[in-house]
Write a structure and sequence with these properties.
The protein is an alpha/beta fold. It folds into two domains: 4-178, NAD(P)-binding Rossmann-like Domain (Rossmann fold), CATH 3.40.50; 187-283, Orthogonal Bundle (N-(1-d-carboxylethyl)-l-norvaline Dehydrogenase, domain 2). The protein is built from 13 helices and eight strands. It has helices at residues 12-23, 37-55, 72-76, 90-103, 119-122, 158-170, 187-203, 209-217, 220-224, 229-236, 241-253, 267-281, 286-320; strands at 4-8, 27-31, 66-68, 81-84, 109-112, 133-137, 147-152, 174-178. Helix 1 crosses helix 2 (37-55), helix 2 packs parallel to helix 13 and helix 10 (229-236) packs across helix 11. The protein is globular, with a radius of gyration of 22 Å. The two termini are 40 Å apart. The mean pLDDT is 92. The structure holds nicotinamide-adenine-dinucleotide (NAD). Nicotinamide-adenine-dinucleotide (NAD) binds next to helix 1 and helix 4.
Length: 322
């Protein structure tokens, strides 16, 4: 693959992107103001590579494809995509994107990994070619989870969106394309709605952190790896499907189960959630948990791949028997 990609901001997400692209045989030019980021990348890729290998590396894949630069201008020149993954602070990102806008070629796509800012706000100071700015929102760990939410701003050109979609898809990502910007995009809006409810329950002493996690990992979370919340409820309606589900449960959904206001993040709530996570981790460090998570995710992704192969083989056989 001839693409060359710049990863700007090499924390959790930047290192994840660089691992993903290098596993796909793509050259990565990295830059971060913190010199420690090179060590973080080494630790990330060392830990990520076995899982990536299990799921299939591309020809030419190598961690050596990631090269760190001293100057941001050197990292972004001659790239087809710049993936910005700096801290989630609007002014910092605006300034950084403006620097990138001035330094890269005009046909280069500039994508922000932001978890929620709108392209129109991010590209405010990009005066050279704001039409090539998009949001390319990934999911952690970026080297395993395929989803990227690709979001256009009011000035983004269709050809930029097409190029971005092509680069991400060719690297094995699943692209969810949003032609119009919306707050929180799609997946984060869903995640945040659930997290808001969870924080309320902790704040009110209604559930512990551990109970909240178990309620998902032993329940709906298992279904969500296979079907989203909509198709899951379609099946929950029995033979009547979603129509029965809505007619049956619709009236009760009007009851005030959902607290749409954000809970106040008091010191007490913050500490209760932090302490709850630490109790649940039961001595396991973040690094231990990352290894556990990646092992599980790799097994789930492999199982889903095999299920898809079985289904397509069955479809081919069924077609053949007509
Ligand atoms: N962590 C997640 O689960 C997640 C998921 C999806 C998207 N994101 C988004 O990705 C972005 C990065 O998040 P993260 O979790 O990797 O944060 P992080 O704190 O792990 O990493 C941020 C990196 O940016 C670097 N940095 C600081 N100032 C910079 C500057 N001026 N220019 C370039 N780099 C700079 C830091 O040195 C650090 O290495 C954020 O926009 C975040 O919303 C995070």
């Amino acid at each position: 693959m001839s693409e060359s990609i710049a990863c700007i901001g090499m924390g959790v997400i930047g290192c994840g992107w660089a691992s993903h692209f290098s596993g796909q045989g793509i050259e990565v030019h990295a830059w971060d103001p913190d010199s420690k980021s090179e060590d973080l990348f080494k630790r990330t890729i060392e830990q990520a590579w076995p899982s990536m290998e299990k799921l299939g590396l591309a020809k030419g894949a190598s961690p050596d494809l990631v090269v760190f630069h001293k100057k941001i201008e050197e990292a972004v020149e001659n790239c087809s995509l710049v993936q910005e993954s700096s801290p989630e602070r609007l002014e910092l990102k605006q300034e950084l994107l403006s620097t990138i806008d001035k330094a890269c070629t005009t046909d280069c796509v500039i994508a922000s990994s932001t978890s929620g800012y709108l392209v129109s706000d991010l590209a405010l100071h990009c005066s050279v070619a704001p039409e090539r700015v998009v949001v390319g929102h990934p999911f952690n760990p970026v080297y395993l989870l395929p989803l990227v939410e690709l979001v256009a701003g009011p000035q983004t050109s269709v050809s930029t969106m097409d190029r971005a979609e092509g680069i991400y898809s060719n690297s094995g990502k699943t692209v969810l394309r949003l032609e119009k910007e919306i707050d929180g995009f799609i997946a984060d809006r869903l995640q945040e709605a659930m997290w808001r409810e969870a924080l309320h329950m902790v704040a009110n002493g209604e559930a512990t952190v551990e109970q909240l996690d178990l309620s998902i990992t032993a329940g709906p979370g298992l279904r969500w790896a296979l079907m989203g919340p909509m198709l899951t409820f379609h099946l929950a309606g029995g033979e009547g499907g979603m129509a029965h589900m809505l007619d049956h449960f619709g009236p009760s959904l009007q009851s005030p189960w959902t607290r749409l206001e954000a809970p106040e993040l008091t010191e007490h709530l913050r500490n209760a959630v932090v302490d709850g996570c630490s109790e649940e981790a039961a001595g396991r460090s973040v690094a231990d948990l990352v290894i556990e998570r990646d092992k599980g995710l790799t097994a789930i992704i492999q199982t889903i791949k095999n299920l898809n192969i079985e289904t397509s083989e069955k479809d081919t056989n069924d077609e053949g028997s007509d």
